[in-house]
Design a protein that fits this description.
three-stranded mixed beta sheet; six-stranded mixed beta sheet; 365 residues; single chain; alpha/beta
């Protein structure tokens, strides 16, 4: 299943324009009035990776398959969404299904584009959005806490520990903080909290939707400080209008256009990279004549766990794997050359897969 990122913002923050640009589509309406997006739009985007392109060229593969990310464009939230204002509740439910939350904040000023709050103020908008998500989680946590406290009447130590964990999260939410600011060493407590499916338990990243002439010179450090972001929260400056133009270009034209505006990578590439970072993901590759493919796995995944990404039978019947770094693979011109130069190692069940590894699994059916 694809990594899924929910795009959230106030009405007219540029969410739908950004969604259309990222997914190179026109699925999402992008009109100049609130609640233009009604049903959530879902777009699947290939995670372009220059390493995989070079691997594919080396093995002269018939097919190149990138990992994918699904972006979900969720209707604009407003103050009171947690209580059902605007189109609130149904869309908050859609957010629960995503792996990460991307908050789009309007940094550009344009009198021709209506702002639901009357003026653009990124910090205020961030606080409104986060408050609505926190309030919705607080409602969920309160109900769970009542049930958990009733369960402790038996004196069961495990149930008492779970109730204590829920109460801790409830207090954090009551203070207006996101649920992802508290972690538990106890696996059962952590599991119990995760089963509440709290929205603010997910990783957050932020998109600063800036004017076209500001994207290359945008001061990220200053903006991070103004928004009061912590070190785990990524901020990516993107001009939705520029991304719309980039989406129409391919190959060298796209590269030349990016260079002309002072950028090395598109906003989509930077957003996906940041998404992988906050979710703790890396990529490994498989390479052969029929197919070269990228696979996303969590950091510190073992070789069998990574094999299971391809098929559960690969994990169950794992014996060993041939492993080589992608740069060595390319410099040696493929598997045969890498083996002749002693660059391929045989790894077992305890091997921790590294970003950029090329793996050939051997297993029992």
């Amino acid at each position: 299943m694809s990594l899924q990122i929910g795009i959230v913002g106030l009405p007219n923050a540029g969410k739908s324009t950004l969604f259309n640009a990222l997914t190179e589509s026109s699925k999402a309406g992008a009109e100049n009035f609130p609640f233009c997006t009604i049903d959530p739009n879902v777009g699947k985007v290939p995670v372009r990776d220059e390493r995989l392109d070079k691997i594919a060229e080396t093995v002269k593969t018939q097919k190149t398959i990138y990992e994918t990310v699904e972006f979900v464009d969720i209707a604009g939230l407003v103050e009171g969404a947690s209580k059902g204002e605007g189109l609130g509740n149904q869309f908050l439910a859609h957010i629960r299904e995503t792996d990460a939350i991307c908050l789009v904040l309007r940094f550009f000023g344009d009198s021709n584009v209506t702002h639901v709050m009357g003026s653009h103020d990124p910090k205020r908008d961030k606080e409104i959005l986060e408050t609505e998500l926190v309030l919705k989680d607080l409602e969920t946590a309160e109900k769970a806490l009542q049930k958990a406290k009733n369960d402790t009447k038996t004196g069961d130590k495990e149930k008492i520990a779970i109730a204590e964990a829920i109460e801790q999260v409830y207090q954090v939410l009551s203070d207006g903080k996101k649920a992802n600011t508290v972690q538990f060493d106890d696996e059962k407590q952590e599991k119990a909290i995760n089963q509440l499916f709290l929205i603010t338990r997910k990783p957050f990243l932020y998109v600063a939707n800036v004017a076209e002439d500001e994207v290359a010179s945008f001061d990220i450090d200053q903006a991070r400080k103004a928004l009061d972001l912590n070190e785990k929260e990524g901020l990516i400056p993107i001009s939705a209008k520029i991304e719309s133009e980039i989406a129409l270009l391919i190959g060298e034209e796209r590269k030349e256009f990016l260079e002309s505006i002072g950028l090395q990578k598109s906003g989509l590439e930077r957003l996906i990279q940041e998404s992988y970072k906050i979710l703790g993901l890396i990529s490994y590759f498989t390479a052969g004549e029929k197919e070269a493919r990228a696979w996303a796995v969590e950091i510190n995944s073992t070789a069998p766990q990574s094999a299971g990404k391809i098929h559960t039978d690969f994990e169950k019947g794992f014996i060993k794997a041939d492993c080589v770094g992608w740069e060595n693979f390319i410099s040696a011109n493929g598997w045969q050359g890498a083996r002749e130069k002693g660059l391929v190692q045989s790894v077992g069940k305890d091997y921790i897969v590294q970003d950029g590894d090329i793996l050939l699994f051997k297993f029992n059916v």
